[in-house]
Amino acid sequence: MEKRNKKQEKLSDFSDRSTSREFSAGGVVFKKAKEEKSRKKRVLWLVTKSSPSKIYPKSYWRFPKGWLDDEYGGKKPGALARGERKATEKEIQDAALREVQEEAGVKAKIIKKIGSERYFYKIKERLITKFVTFYLMEWQKDLPEGFGSETSKVEWLVYDEARKKLLHSGERKVLDKAEESFRFGNSGKSVIIGAQGEVA
C-alpha cells in the first residue's frame, strides 16, 4: 500500500468537512529612519504582535491584515470577505490601509501590490482557506489613537530581524518580495541596503 506524506494526510482530514474561503488584505510597511550617532539612513519594517484570541490563543508576530469587510461589529466576515462579490482593486487597497491603521496605529501610503498569500486554519470542524493580498506601503505618521485591541505590540526592525520574528513562512516570502522591490524600486534603479538596514 502506498504511503501518504503528512501534507496529504492533513488535507485529507478535512475532505468530509465543510470548507469556506475568506478574502483579506494587509500591508508591509517600511520607513526610513536616521541613526542619531551616524546620521545614516536605515530602512525599518513594521511587524505587529497579535493579542491572544480564541483561534490563536498564543501571541505571534505578523503583518497587519484583516477581512476586506466585516459584519456584527467585526465578529464575522462581510460579503466581500466571503467572496460573494468580487472586490475592486480600490476596495482591497482601502481594506489594507484600514487594517494597517487599526492593527499598527500608523497611517501609510501604498507604493505597489506585492502579491497574495494563502493560509489555512480551522474553526471547529470547518476548514477555512484565507487569501490575503499584501501591499508594499511607506509609513507617513503614527496615529494618536495608537493600535487596536487585536495587537499587543508593534516594532520597527531591520529586514533580517523582522524576518526572524514572523511566524508564517508565507509572510516571510512576502517580506522578501517587499525588500527586493524596495531595493530595485519601480524604476529599476538599485538602492543599496546594508545588513543593518542602512541606505547607501
UniProtKB/TrEMBL annotation:
Coiled coil: none annotated. Keywords: Hydrolase. PANTHER family: BIS(5'-NUCLEOSYL)-TETRAPHOSPHATASE [ASYMMETRICAL], DIADENOSINE 5,5-P1,P4-TETRAPHOSPHATE PYROPHOSPHOHYDROLASE MUTT. This is Nudix hydrolase domain-containing protein. The lineage of its organism: Bacteria, Candidatus Woeseibacteriota. GO terms for molecular function: bis(5'-nucleosyl)-tetraphosphatase (asymmetrical) activity. Pfam families: NUDIX. Residues 1-20 have a biased composition (Basic and acidic residues). It comes from Candidatus Woesebacteria bacterium RIFCSPLOWO2_01_FULL_39_10b. It comes from the Bacteria. Residues 20-180 form the Nudix hydrolase domain. GO terms for biological process: AMP biosynthetic process; ATP biosynthetic process. The keyword Zinc-finger does not apply. Residues 1-22 are annotated as: Disordered. InterPro entries: NUDIX_hydrolase-like_dom_sf (IPR015797), NUDIX_hydrolase_dom (IPR000086), Nudix_hydrolase_domain (IPR051325).
